[in-house]
Amino acid sequence: ARLAWRNSAKCIGRIAWNTLKVRDCRHLSKPHEIFQDVQTHLKEATAGSNIQSIMTVYKQKTPSEPFGIRFWSSQFVRYAAYKDPIDGSIMGDPANLELTEYLIQKKYWSPPDDPTPFDVLPLVLKIPGIKKPFVHELPKECVYEVDLEHPTNPELTKLGYRWTTVPAISNFKMNLGGIVYQNMPFNGWFMSTEIVRNLMERYDAGPRIAGLLGLDIKTDPAWQNSASSELERMVVHSFRKNGFTIVDPMGVGKSFCAHVQREREEYGRECPAQWSWIGGLVGPNNPVWHLEMRDFLLFPQYDYASENMLLHNAAEEVADDDTAVTELSEALSVEAPEVKVPQVLILYGSETGNAEAVARRLKRELRALKPTLKSLKDVAENFKDVCIRKKISHVLAICSTFGKGQPPSNAKAFFEAEKSRAIPLPEASAVKFAVLGLGSSIYPDFCQAGIDLDKILCSKGLDRTVELTKVDEAAGGEGAVDEWIGLVKNIVLPPNLQSYLVEAAALIDETPVVHSMKWILGEESVITTDKESGEKGSLCLSNTELLKTPDETKSIRKITFKAPAPYESGDHLSVKPRNSKTLIDRFLKCFEPELN
What we know:
The protein contains 19 helices and 24 strands. By secondary structure, the chain is an alpha/beta fold. Helix 5 crosses helix 7 and helix 6 crosses helix 7.
Protein backbone atom coordinates (compact mmCIF):
# COMPACT_ATOMS: atom_id res chain seq x y z
CA ALA A 1 0.00 0.00 0.00
CA ARG A 2 2.85 2.38 0.80
CA LEU A 3 4.62 1.51 -2.43
CA ALA A 4 1.43 2.26 -4.39
CA TRP A 5 1.53 5.78 -2.95
CA ARG A 6 5.22 6.04 -3.73
CA ASN A 7 4.51 5.07 -7.35
CA SER A 8 1.57 7.49 -7.86
CA ALA A 9 2.76 9.87 -10.56
CA LYS A 10 0.00 12.41 -9.86
CA CYS A 11 0.81 12.99 -6.20
CA ILE A 12 3.11 15.86 -5.22
CA GLY A 13 3.27 14.93 -1.51
CA ARG A 14 4.92 11.53 -1.82
CA ILE A 15 7.90 12.38 0.34
CA ALA A 16 5.85 11.03 3.28
CA TRP A 17 4.99 7.72 1.57
CA ASN A 18 6.74 5.60 4.19
CA THR A 19 4.71 7.18 7.03
CA LEU A 20 1.35 5.93 5.72
CA LYS A 21 -0.51 4.05 8.45
CA VAL A 22 -2.27 0.99 6.98
CA ARG A 23 -5.27 -0.36 8.91
CA ASP A 24 -6.10 -3.97 8.07
CA CYS A 25 -9.89 -4.28 8.27
CA ARG A 26 -10.38 -7.12 5.80
CA HIS A 27 -12.35 -9.01 8.45
CA LEU A 28 -15.16 -6.43 8.39
CA SER A 29 -18.03 -7.17 6.01
CA LYS A 30 -21.22 -5.99 7.75
CA PRO A 31 -22.40 -2.45 6.93
CA HIS A 32 -22.73 -1.27 10.52
CA GLU A 33 -19.20 -2.50 11.28
CA ILE A 34 -17.75 -0.67 8.26
CA PHE A 35 -19.63 2.57 9.02
CA GLN A 36 -18.42 2.45 12.60
CA ASP A 37 -14.88 1.87 11.40
CA VAL A 38 -15.10 4.88 9.05
CA GLN A 39 -15.68 7.05 12.09
CA THR A 40 -12.61 5.53 13.71
CA HIS A 41 -10.59 6.24 10.56
CA LEU A 42 -11.62 9.90 10.58
CA LYS A 43 -10.87 10.32 14.27
CA GLU A 44 -7.44 8.74 13.92
CA ALA A 45 -6.69 10.77 10.77
CA THR A 46 -7.15 14.07 12.59
CA ALA A 47 -4.98 13.01 15.54
CA GLY A 48 -6.17 16.03 17.49
CA SER A 49 -6.18 18.30 14.39
CA ASN A 50 -2.74 17.42 13.01
CA ILE A 51 -3.60 15.24 10.00
CA GLN A 52 -2.18 11.69 9.88
CA SER A 53 -2.04 9.87 6.51
CA ILE A 54 -4.05 6.66 6.90
CA MET A 55 -5.34 3.90 4.63
CA THR A 56 -8.04 1.43 5.71
CA VAL A 57 -8.22 -1.77 3.66
CA TYR A 58 -11.53 -3.64 3.66
CA LYS A 59 -12.44 -7.04 2.23
CA GLN A 60 -11.06 -7.75 -1.24
CA LYS A 61 -13.19 -8.41 -4.32
CA THR A 62 -13.67 -12.06 -5.26
CA PRO A 63 -13.50 -13.15 -8.93
CA SER A 64 -17.25 -13.84 -8.99
CA GLU A 65 -18.15 -10.31 -7.82
CA PRO A 66 -18.45 -7.57 -10.46
CA PHE A 67 -17.61 -4.78 -8.02
CA GLY A 68 -17.25 -6.12 -4.48
CA ILE A 69 -18.00 -4.05 -1.37
CA ARG A 70 -17.74 -0.41 -2.42
CA PHE A 71 -18.52 3.11 -1.29
CA TRP A 72 -20.49 5.16 -3.78
CA SER A 73 -19.18 8.35 -2.21
CA SER A 74 -15.94 9.52 -3.83
CA GLN A 75 -14.80 10.90 -0.45
CA PHE A 76 -16.00 10.38 3.10
CA VAL A 77 -17.09 14.01 3.39
CA ARG A 78 -18.83 15.43 0.33
CA TYR A 79 -21.23 18.36 0.02
CA ALA A 80 -24.70 18.07 -1.49
CA ALA A 81 -25.90 19.97 -4.56
CA TYR A 82 -29.41 21.28 -5.20
CA LYS A 83 -30.56 22.27 -8.68
CA ASP A 84 -33.16 25.01 -9.04
CA PRO A 85 -35.98 23.59 -11.24
CA ILE A 86 -36.73 27.03 -12.70
CA ASP A 87 -33.42 28.59 -13.72
CA GLY A 88 -31.19 25.50 -13.48
CA SER A 89 -28.76 27.13 -11.06
CA ILE A 90 -26.99 24.86 -8.58
CA MET A 91 -26.45 25.54 -4.89
CA GLY A 92 -23.70 23.43 -3.36
CA ASP A 93 -21.07 21.23 -4.98
CA PRO A 94 -22.16 20.37 -8.56
CA ALA A 95 -19.72 17.44 -8.60
CA ASN A 96 -22.18 15.64 -6.30
CA LEU A 97 -25.41 16.66 -8.01
CA GLU A 98 -26.11 13.22 -9.46
CA LEU A 99 -25.57 11.45 -6.13
CA THR A 100 -27.66 14.03 -4.26
CA GLU A 101 -30.61 13.72 -6.64
CA TYR A 102 -30.38 9.92 -6.59
CA LEU A 103 -30.51 9.77 -2.80
CA ILE A 104 -33.44 12.20 -2.62
CA GLN A 105 -35.35 10.48 -5.43
CA LYS A 106 -34.93 7.04 -3.85
CA LYS A 107 -35.79 8.51 -0.43
CA TYR A 108 -32.53 7.24 1.01
CA TRP A 109 -31.79 10.70 2.40
CA SER A 110 -33.65 13.94 3.02
CA PRO A 111 -31.87 17.30 2.92
CA PRO A 112 -32.25 19.68 5.87
CA ASP A 113 -35.30 21.95 6.01
CA ASP A 114 -33.05 24.92 5.30
CA PRO A 115 -30.49 23.67 2.73
CA THR A 116 -27.08 25.33 2.51
CA PRO A 117 -24.20 25.08 0.00
CA PHE A 118 -22.26 22.94 2.50
CA ASP A 119 -24.64 20.19 3.60
CA VAL A 120 -22.69 16.99 4.21
CA LEU A 121 -23.96 14.01 2.21
CA PRO A 122 -24.34 10.61 3.89
CA LEU A 123 -21.99 7.74 3.15
CA VAL A 124 -23.40 5.20 0.70
CA LEU A 125 -22.15 1.60 0.85
CA LYS A 126 -23.05 -1.21 -1.56
CA ILE A 127 -22.78 -4.84 -0.51
CA PRO A 128 -22.74 -7.56 -3.24
CA GLY A 129 -25.93 -9.60 -3.38
CA ILE A 130 -28.04 -7.01 -1.54
CA LYS A 131 -30.20 -4.89 -3.81
CA LYS A 132 -30.41 -1.66 -1.85
CA PRO A 133 -27.36 0.34 -0.80
CA PHE A 134 -26.77 1.16 2.85
CA VAL A 135 -26.80 4.83 3.88
CA HIS A 136 -25.14 6.28 6.95
CA GLU A 137 -24.98 9.88 8.12
CA LEU A 138 -21.71 10.71 9.81
CA PRO A 139 -22.01 12.18 13.32
CA LYS A 140 -21.08 15.85 13.50
CA GLU A 141 -18.16 15.08 15.79
CA CYS A 142 -16.58 13.00 13.00
CA VAL A 143 -16.91 15.67 10.32
CA TYR A 144 -14.01 18.05 10.70
CA GLU A 145 -14.52 21.33 8.83
CA VAL A 146 -13.00 24.80 8.79
CA ASP A 147 -14.89 28.06 8.23
CA LEU A 148 -12.77 30.15 5.88
CA GLU A 149 -11.91 33.65 7.06
CA HIS A 150 -9.64 36.27 5.58
CA PRO A 151 -6.86 37.56 7.86
CA THR A 152 -7.42 41.24 6.94
CA ASN A 153 -10.64 41.56 4.91
CA PRO A 154 -13.78 40.78 6.96
CA GLU A 155 -16.01 41.20 3.89
CA LEU A 156 -14.46 38.10 2.33
CA THR A 157 -15.08 36.19 5.55
CA LYS A 158 -18.79 37.00 5.29
CA LEU A 159 -18.99 34.96 2.06
CA GLY A 160 -19.44 31.92 4.32
CA TYR A 161 -17.16 29.47 2.57
CA ARG A 162 -15.98 26.37 4.41
CA TRP A 163 -14.29 23.06 3.63
CA THR A 164 -13.58 19.67 5.14
CA THR A 165 -10.12 19.12 6.60
CA VAL A 166 -9.58 15.41 5.85
CA PRO A 167 -9.45 14.45 2.13
CA ALA A 168 -10.41 10.80 2.65
CA ILE A 169 -10.68 9.37 -0.88
CA SER A 170 -12.94 6.33 -1.26
CA ASN A 171 -13.24 5.68 -5.01
CA PHE A 172 -9.85 4.09 -5.71
CA LYS A 173 -8.79 0.47 -5.97
CA MET A 174 -5.48 -1.30 -5.58
CA ASN A 175 -4.17 -4.50 -7.17
CA LEU A 176 -1.64 -6.38 -5.05
CA GLY A 177 -0.40 -9.61 -6.57
CA GLY A 178 -3.62 -10.20 -8.51
CA ILE A 179 -5.90 -9.50 -5.53
CA VAL A 180 -8.07 -6.42 -6.07
CA TYR A 181 -8.81 -4.26 -3.04
CA GLN A 182 -11.60 -2.12 -4.41
CA ASN A 183 -12.49 -0.61 -1.04
CA MET A 184 -9.39 0.99 0.45
CA PRO A 185 -10.19 4.57 1.51
CA PHE A 186 -7.15 6.65 2.33
CA ASN A 187 -6.27 10.20 3.23
CA GLY A 188 -3.32 12.51 3.21
CA TRP A 189 -3.74 16.22 3.76
CA PHE A 190 -4.86 19.09 1.57
CA MET A 191 -2.69 21.38 -0.49
CA SER A 192 -4.29 24.82 -0.40
CA THR A 193 -4.49 24.95 -4.21
CA GLU A 194 -6.87 21.96 -4.24
CA ILE A 195 -9.44 23.71 -2.07
CA VAL A 196 -9.03 26.97 -4.00
CA ARG A 197 -9.62 25.17 -7.28
CA ASN A 198 -12.74 23.43 -5.90
CA LEU A 199 -14.27 26.69 -4.72
CA MET A 200 -13.31 28.63 -7.86
CA GLU A 201 -14.51 26.00 -10.33
CA ARG A 202 -17.40 24.31 -8.56
CA TYR A 203 -18.71 27.07 -6.32
CA ASP A 204 -17.94 29.89 -8.77
CA ALA A 205 -16.28 31.88 -5.98
CA GLY A 206 -14.19 34.00 -8.36
CA PRO A 207 -16.73 36.67 -9.40
CA ARG A 208 -17.99 37.16 -5.81
CA ILE A 209 -14.46 37.63 -4.46
CA ALA A 210 -13.52 39.87 -7.39
CA GLY A 211 -16.54 42.06 -6.71
CA LEU A 212 -15.56 42.54 -3.06
CA LEU A 213 -12.00 43.35 -4.16
CA GLY A 214 -13.27 45.99 -6.58
CA LEU A 215 -12.06 44.13 -9.68
CA ASP A 216 -13.84 44.51 -13.02
CA ILE A 217 -14.13 41.00 -14.50
CA LYS A 218 -14.92 42.45 -17.94
CA THR A 219 -11.85 44.63 -18.30
CA ASP A 220 -9.27 43.18 -15.91
CA PRO A 221 -7.69 40.07 -17.51
CA ALA A 222 -5.95 39.13 -14.24
CA TRP A 223 -9.03 39.20 -12.00
CA GLN A 224 -9.09 35.40 -11.61
CA ASN A 225 -5.47 35.34 -10.45
CA SER A 226 -6.17 38.06 -7.89
CA ALA A 227 -9.33 36.34 -6.63
CA SER A 228 -7.70 32.93 -6.31
CA SER A 229 -4.71 34.46 -4.52
CA GLU A 230 -6.94 36.03 -1.86
CA LEU A 231 -8.92 32.82 -1.56
CA GLU A 232 -5.69 30.89 -0.97
CA ARG A 233 -4.77 33.31 1.82
CA MET A 234 -8.15 32.55 3.40
CA VAL A 235 -7.64 28.78 3.16
CA VAL A 236 -4.10 28.69 4.56
CA HIS A 237 -4.88 31.21 7.32
CA SER A 238 -8.05 29.39 8.42
CA PHE A 239 -6.52 25.90 8.49
CA ARG A 240 -3.47 27.03 10.42
CA LYS A 241 -5.54 29.10 12.84
CA ASN A 242 -7.61 26.02 13.69
CA GLY A 243 -4.56 23.77 13.92
CA PHE A 244 -5.29 21.54 10.92
CA THR A 245 -2.53 20.38 8.61
CA ILE A 246 -2.34 22.06 5.20
CA VAL A 247 0.54 22.57 2.81
CA ASP A 248 1.08 25.55 0.53
CA PRO A 249 2.24 25.16 -3.10
CA MET A 250 5.71 26.57 -2.51
CA GLY A 251 6.44 24.38 0.50
CA VAL A 252 5.14 21.17 -1.05
CA GLY A 253 7.01 21.97 -4.29
CA LYS A 254 10.31 22.15 -2.43
CA SER A 255 9.55 18.89 -0.60
CA PHE A 256 8.79 17.13 -3.90
CA CYS A 257 12.12 18.26 -5.34
CA ALA A 258 13.79 16.85 -2.22
CA HIS A 259 11.85 13.59 -2.68
CA VAL A 260 12.98 13.23 -6.31
CA GLN A 261 16.60 13.87 -5.32
CA ARG A 262 16.36 11.39 -2.44
CA GLU A 263 14.90 8.70 -4.68
CA ARG A 264 17.66 9.19 -7.21
CA GLU A 265 20.67 9.53 -4.91
CA GLU A 266 19.78 7.22 -2.02
CA TYR A 267 17.84 4.51 -3.84
CA GLY A 268 19.01 4.82 -7.46
CA ARG A 269 15.36 5.11 -8.44
CA GLU A 270 13.64 7.31 -11.00
CA CYS A 271 10.54 9.00 -9.65
CA PRO A 272 7.49 8.85 -11.98
CA ALA A 273 5.72 12.20 -12.21
CA GLN A 274 2.89 13.64 -14.30
CA TRP A 275 3.71 17.28 -15.01
CA SER A 276 0.12 18.39 -15.57
CA TRP A 277 -0.74 17.33 -12.01
CA ILE A 278 2.47 18.42 -10.29
CA GLY A 279 4.16 21.23 -12.21
CA GLY A 280 1.01 22.56 -13.84
CA LEU A 281 -0.89 22.62 -10.56
CA VAL A 282 1.44 24.97 -8.67
CA GLY A 283 2.47 27.61 -11.24
CA PRO A 284 5.69 28.96 -12.80
CA ASN A 285 7.13 30.43 -9.59
CA ASN A 286 7.31 27.01 -7.98
CA PRO A 287 10.57 24.98 -8.14
CA VAL A 288 8.79 21.93 -9.63
CA TRP A 289 7.64 23.97 -12.65
CA HIS A 290 11.06 23.55 -14.26
CA LEU A 291 11.75 20.07 -12.89
CA GLU A 292 12.10 17.55 -15.71
CA MET A 293 9.60 14.74 -15.24
CA ARG A 294 8.81 11.46 -16.91
CA ASP A 295 5.40 9.84 -16.54
CA PHE A 296 5.52 6.06 -16.48
CA LEU A 297 3.67 3.29 -14.69
CA LEU A 298 5.07 1.34 -11.75
CA PHE A 299 3.27 -1.31 -9.71
CA PRO A 300 1.68 -1.57 -7.22
CA GLN A 301 -0.52 1.36 -8.19
CA TYR A 302 -3.74 3.11 -7.24
CA ASP A 303 -6.44 3.20 -9.94
CA TYR A 304 -9.83 4.84 -10.21
CA ALA A 305 -12.63 2.37 -9.57
CA SER A 306 -15.82 2.32 -11.63
CA GLU A 307 -18.69 4.64 -10.72
CA ASN A 308 -20.84 2.12 -8.87
CA MET A 309 -23.94 4.27 -8.82
CA LEU A 310 -24.04 4.28 -12.65
CA LEU A 311 -23.69 0.49 -12.70
CA HIS A 312 -26.05 -0.17 -9.82
CA ASN A 313 -28.91 -1.46 -11.96
CA ALA A 314 -26.60 -3.64 -14.00
CA ALA A 315 -25.18 -6.37 -11.83
CA GLU A 316 -26.32 -5.77 -8.28
CA GLU A 317 -29.93 -4.64 -8.23
CA VAL A 318 -31.07 -6.83 -11.11
CA ALA A 319 -29.15 -9.94 -10.11
CA ASP A 320 -27.95 -11.47 -6.89
CA ASP A 321 -26.08 -14.48 -8.24
CA ASP A 322 -23.45 -15.20 -10.86
CA THR A 323 -25.84 -16.89 -13.28
CA ALA A 324 -28.14 -13.90 -13.45
CA VAL A 325 -25.17 -11.59 -13.97
CA THR A 326 -24.04 -13.67 -16.94
CA GLU A 327 -27.55 -13.63 -18.39
CA LEU A 328 -27.70 -9.88 -17.99
CA SER A 329 -24.34 -9.57 -19.69
CA GLU A 330 -25.60 -11.50 -22.68
CA ALA A 331 -28.74 -9.37 -22.79
CA LEU A 332 -26.59 -6.27 -22.95
CA SER A 333 -24.55 -7.46 -25.91
CA VAL A 334 -24.61 -5.18 -28.93
CA GLU A 335 -26.88 -7.46 -30.95
CA ALA A 336 -29.68 -8.11 -28.48
CA PRO A 337 -31.28 -4.79 -27.48
CA GLU A 338 -32.92 -2.42 -29.90
CA VAL A 339 -31.37 0.72 -28.52
CA LYS A 340 -30.54 3.53 -30.92
CA VAL A 341 -27.17 4.92 -30.01
CA PRO A 342 -26.46 8.39 -31.45
CA GLN A 343 -23.44 8.75 -33.73
CA VAL A 344 -21.88 12.09 -32.88
CA LEU A 345 -19.53 14.28 -34.91
CA ILE A 346 -17.89 17.10 -32.94
CA LEU A 347 -16.42 19.88 -35.09
CA TYR A 348 -14.39 22.87 -34.02
CA GLY A 349 -12.86 25.99 -35.50
CA SER A 350 -10.23 27.46 -33.21
CA GLU A 351 -7.47 30.02 -33.58
CA THR A 352 -6.10 30.31 -30.04
CA GLY A 353 -7.24 26.91 -28.73
CA ASN A 354 -10.29 27.96 -26.70
CA ALA A 355 -12.88 26.43 -29.02
CA GLU A 356 -10.78 23.29 -29.43
CA ALA A 357 -10.55 22.93 -25.64
CA VAL A 358 -14.35 23.16 -25.36
CA ALA A 359 -14.70 20.56 -28.13
CA ARG A 360 -12.36 18.16 -26.38
CA ARG A 361 -14.21 18.68 -23.12
CA LEU A 362 -17.49 17.89 -24.89
CA LYS A 363 -15.92 14.73 -26.26
CA ARG A 364 -14.99 13.65 -22.74
CA GLU A 365 -18.53 14.32 -21.53
CA LEU A 366 -19.93 12.17 -24.36
CA ARG A 367 -17.19 9.52 -24.24
CA ALA A 368 -19.74 6.74 -23.70
CA LEU A 369 -20.89 7.40 -27.30
CA LYS A 370 -17.32 7.35 -28.66
CA PRO A 371 -17.85 10.56 -30.66
CA THR A 372 -15.68 11.60 -33.61
CA LEU A 373 -13.68 14.81 -33.07
CA LYS A 374 -12.41 16.80 -36.07
CA SER A 375 -11.54 20.35 -36.98
CA LEU A 376 -13.75 21.99 -39.59
CA LYS A 377 -10.77 21.95 -41.93
CA ASP A 378 -10.58 18.14 -41.66
CA VAL A 379 -14.08 17.76 -43.15
CA ALA A 380 -13.96 20.68 -45.59
CA GLU A 381 -13.84 18.42 -48.65
CA ASN A 382 -15.71 15.36 -47.37
CA PHE A 383 -18.31 16.55 -44.85
CA LYS A 384 -21.07 14.76 -46.73
CA ASP A 385 -19.07 11.52 -47.00
CA VAL A 386 -18.17 11.55 -43.31
CA CYS A 387 -21.80 12.00 -42.29
CA ILE A 388 -22.95 9.18 -44.55
CA ARG A 389 -20.07 6.76 -43.87
CA LYS A 390 -20.24 7.13 -40.09
CA LYS A 391 -24.06 7.36 -40.08
CA ILE A 392 -23.85 10.61 -38.12
CA SER A 393 -27.01 11.54 -36.23
CA HIS A 394 -25.72 14.64 -34.41
CA VAL A 395 -23.28 17.34 -35.50
CA LEU A 396 -22.05 19.50 -32.60
CA ALA A 397 -19.91 22.45 -33.63
CA ILE A 398 -17.88 24.94 -31.60
CA CYS A 399 -16.42 27.87 -33.49
CA SER A 400 -14.65 31.04 -32.45
CA THR A 401 -14.44 34.30 -34.42
CA PHE A 402 -11.13 35.74 -35.56
CA GLY A 403 -10.19 39.11 -36.97
CA LYS A 404 -13.07 41.09 -38.45
CA GLY A 405 -15.83 38.50 -38.11
CA GLN A 406 -13.83 35.82 -39.93
CA PRO A 407 -13.63 32.11 -39.13
CA PRO A 408 -10.40 30.70 -37.65
CA SER A 409 -7.67 29.47 -39.99
CA ASN A 410 -8.60 25.82 -39.43
CA ALA A 411 -12.23 26.53 -40.40
CA LYS A 412 -11.91 28.78 -43.47
CA ALA A 413 -11.74 25.91 -45.94
CA PHE A 414 -14.99 24.44 -44.58
CA PHE A 415 -16.80 27.79 -44.81
CA GLU A 416 -15.64 28.38 -48.37
CA ALA A 417 -16.37 24.82 -49.54
CA GLU A 418 -19.83 24.53 -47.99
CA LYS A 419 -20.96 28.00 -49.11
CA SER A 420 -20.18 26.97 -52.69
CA ARG A 421 -22.23 23.77 -52.39
CA ALA A 422 -25.91 24.63 -52.62
CA ILE A 423 -27.11 21.01 -52.66
CA PRO A 424 -28.32 19.80 -49.25
CA LEU A 425 -27.12 16.54 -47.75
CA PRO A 426 -29.21 13.45 -48.55
CA GLU A 427 -31.58 12.64 -45.67
CA ALA A 428 -30.08 15.62 -43.84
CA SER A 429 -33.26 16.21 -41.87
CA ALA A 430 -32.40 13.10 -39.84
CA VAL A 431 -29.17 14.78 -38.69
CA LYS A 432 -29.46 17.11 -35.70
CA PHE A 433 -27.04 19.96 -35.11
CA ALA A 434 -26.10 22.53 -32.51
CA VAL A 435 -23.60 25.38 -32.71
CA LEU A 436 -21.71 27.14 -29.93
CA GLY A 437 -20.14 30.43 -30.99
CA LEU A 438 -17.25 31.92 -29.01
CA GLY A 439 -16.42 35.60 -29.24
CA SER A 440 -16.04 38.89 -27.42
CA SER A 441 -18.61 41.66 -27.29
CA ILE A 442 -15.88 44.30 -27.35
CA TYR A 443 -15.58 43.61 -31.09
CA PRO A 444 -18.27 44.71 -33.57
CA ASP A 445 -18.64 41.31 -35.29
CA PHE A 446 -19.48 39.41 -32.12
CA CYS A 447 -19.61 35.63 -32.77
CA GLN A 448 -20.00 36.21 -36.52
CA ALA A 449 -18.26 32.95 -37.46
CA GLY A 450 -20.61 31.00 -35.19
CA ILE A 451 -23.61 32.75 -36.73
CA ASP A 452 -22.40 31.93 -40.26
CA LEU A 453 -21.70 28.30 -39.34
CA ASP A 454 -25.20 27.92 -37.91
CA LYS A 455 -26.66 29.26 -41.19
CA ILE A 456 -24.49 26.92 -43.30
CA LEU A 457 -25.57 23.79 -41.43
CA CYS A 458 -29.18 24.88 -41.53
CA SER A 459 -28.96 25.49 -45.29
CA LYS A 460 -27.74 21.92 -45.75
CA GLY A 461 -31.02 20.64 -44.38
CA LEU A 462 -29.79 19.66 -40.95
CA ASP A 463 -32.30 19.94 -38.09
CA ARG A 464 -31.35 22.47 -35.41
CA THR A 465 -31.82 20.76 -32.03
CA VAL A 466 -30.44 23.63 -29.92
CA GLU A 467 -30.65 27.29 -30.80
CA LEU A 468 -27.36 29.03 -31.59
CA THR A 469 -25.59 29.88 -28.34
CA LYS A 470 -23.18 32.82 -28.28
CA VAL A 471 -20.60 33.01 -25.50
CA ASP A 472 -19.15 36.39 -24.53
CA GLU A 473 -15.61 35.81 -23.28
CA ALA A 474 -15.34 39.47 -22.25
CA ALA A 475 -17.99 38.82 -19.59
CA GLY A 476 -16.47 35.54 -18.43
CA GLY A 477 -18.25 32.91 -20.52
CA GLU A 478 -17.43 29.76 -18.53
CA GLY A 479 -20.95 29.52 -17.15
CA ALA A 480 -22.54 29.75 -20.60
CA VAL A 481 -20.20 27.03 -21.91
CA ASP A 482 -21.10 24.77 -18.98
CA GLU A 483 -24.80 25.34 -19.57
CA TRP A 484 -24.53 24.58 -23.30
CA ILE A 485 -22.55 21.38 -22.73
CA GLY A 486 -25.05 20.25 -20.09
CA LEU A 487 -27.99 20.97 -22.40
CA VAL A 488 -26.44 19.15 -25.34
CA LYS A 489 -25.46 16.19 -23.17
CA ASN A 490 -29.00 15.80 -21.82
CA ILE A 491 -30.32 15.70 -25.39
CA VAL A 492 -27.70 13.44 -26.98
CA LEU A 493 -26.77 11.29 -23.97
CA PRO A 494 -29.63 11.25 -21.45
CA PRO A 495 -28.91 9.54 -18.10
CA ASN A 496 -30.79 6.34 -18.95
CA LEU A 497 -28.81 5.88 -22.17
CA GLN A 498 -25.53 6.63 -20.42
CA SER A 499 -26.31 4.03 -17.74
CA TYR A 500 -27.12 1.47 -20.41
CA LEU A 501 -23.87 2.10 -22.30
CA VAL A 502 -21.79 1.92 -19.13
CA GLU A 503 -23.49 -1.33 -18.16
CA ALA A 504 -22.95 -2.81 -21.60
CA ALA A 505 -19.26 -1.89 -21.62
CA ALA A 506 -18.75 -3.31 -18.15
CA LEU A 507 -20.64 -6.56 -18.56
CA ILE A 508 -20.01 -7.78 -22.10
CA ASP A 509 -19.08 -11.42 -21.60
CA GLU A 510 -15.73 -12.46 -23.02
CA THR A 511 -14.98 -16.18 -22.88
CA PRO A 512 -11.41 -16.60 -21.65
CA VAL A 513 -8.92 -19.06 -23.05
CA VAL A 514 -8.92 -22.18 -20.87
CA HIS A 515 -5.54 -23.43 -19.69
CA SER A 516 -4.90 -26.58 -17.73
CA MET A 517 -2.36 -26.11 -14.95
CA LYS A 518 -1.27 -28.21 -11.99
CA TRP A 519 1.09 -27.42 -9.19
CA ILE A 520 3.44 -30.22 -8.14
CA LEU A 521 6.28 -30.44 -5.67
CA GLY A 522 9.70 -30.67 -7.30
CA GLU A 523 11.85 -33.72 -6.76
CA GLU A 524 14.86 -31.74 -5.55
CA SER A 525 14.82 -30.69 -1.90
CA VAL A 526 17.80 -28.33 -2.02
CA ILE A 527 18.48 -25.49 -4.42
CA THR A 528 22.03 -24.26 -4.43
CA THR A 529 23.68 -21.07 -5.60
CA ASP A 530 24.15 -20.79 -9.36
CA LYS A 531 27.90 -21.00 -9.95
CA GLU A 532 27.82 -19.07 -13.23
CA SER A 533 25.60 -16.11 -12.25
CA GLY A 534 26.25 -16.13 -8.53
CA GLU A 535 22.51 -15.91 -7.86
CA LYS A 536 21.40 -17.43 -4.58
CA GLY A 537 18.69 -20.04 -4.58
CA SER A 538 15.81 -20.53 -2.15
CA LEU A 539 13.46 -23.46 -1.63
CA CYS A 540 9.71 -22.91 -2.02
CA LEU A 541 8.17 -23.29 1.45
CA SER A 542 4.47 -23.16 0.56
CA ASN A 543 2.11 -22.70 -2.37
CA THR A 544 -1.37 -21.65 -1.23
CA GLU A 545 -4.32 -20.85 -3.48
CA LEU A 546 -6.06 -17.63 -2.33
CA LEU A 547 -8.68 -17.08 -5.02
CA LYS A 548 -9.99 -19.01 -7.99
CA THR A 549 -12.50 -18.07 -10.68
CA PRO A 550 -15.63 -20.26 -10.90
CA ASP A 551 -14.50 -21.69 -14.26
CA GLU A 552 -11.03 -22.41 -12.82
CA THR A 553 -9.29 -20.44 -15.57
CA LYS A 554 -7.46 -18.19 -13.13
CA SER A 555 -5.73 -19.04 -9.88
CA ILE A 556 -4.27 -16.41 -7.55
CA ARG A 557 -1.69 -17.92 -5.24
CA LYS A 558 0.57 -17.02 -2.38
CA ILE A 559 3.98 -18.61 -2.87
CA THR A 560 6.24 -18.43 0.16
CA PHE A 561 10.00 -18.90 0.06
CA LYS A 562 12.90 -17.99 2.27
CA ALA A 563 14.51 -14.79 1.03
CA PRO A 564 18.26 -15.29 0.45
CA ALA A 565 19.02 -11.85 1.90
CA PRO A 566 17.08 -9.24 3.90
CA TYR A 567 15.45 -6.40 1.97
CA GLU A 568 13.48 -3.29 2.84
CA SER A 569 10.20 -1.89 1.57
CA GLY A 570 10.86 -0.33 -1.81
CA ASP A 571 13.81 -2.54 -2.79
CA HIS A 572 13.62 -4.42 -6.08
CA LEU A 573 13.52 -8.18 -5.62
CA SER A 574 13.90 -10.39 -8.67
CA VAL A 575 12.28 -13.82 -8.42
CA LYS A 576 13.36 -16.34 -11.06
CA PRO A 577 11.70 -19.75 -10.78
CA ARG A 578 14.15 -22.59 -11.52
CA ASN A 579 13.14 -26.01 -12.78
CA SER A 580 14.76 -29.14 -11.45
CA LYS A 581 17.39 -30.92 -13.56
CA THR A 582 15.15 -34.00 -13.78
CA LEU A 583 12.29 -31.96 -15.26
CA ILE A 584 14.62 -30.30 -17.77
CA ASP A 585 16.00 -33.66 -18.89
CA ARG A 586 12.46 -34.97 -19.43
CA PHE A 587 11.60 -31.89 -21.51
CA LEU A 588 14.70 -32.23 -23.65
CA LYS A 589 13.98 -35.88 -24.29
CA CYS A 590 10.34 -35.28 -25.25
CA PHE A 591 11.19 -32.49 -27.70
CA GLU A 592 14.51 -33.80 -28.94
CA PRO A 593 13.52 -33.93 -32.66
CA GLU A 594 12.23 -30.36 -32.62
CA LEU A 595 15.24 -29.03 -30.73
CA ASN A 596 17.66 -30.75 -33.09
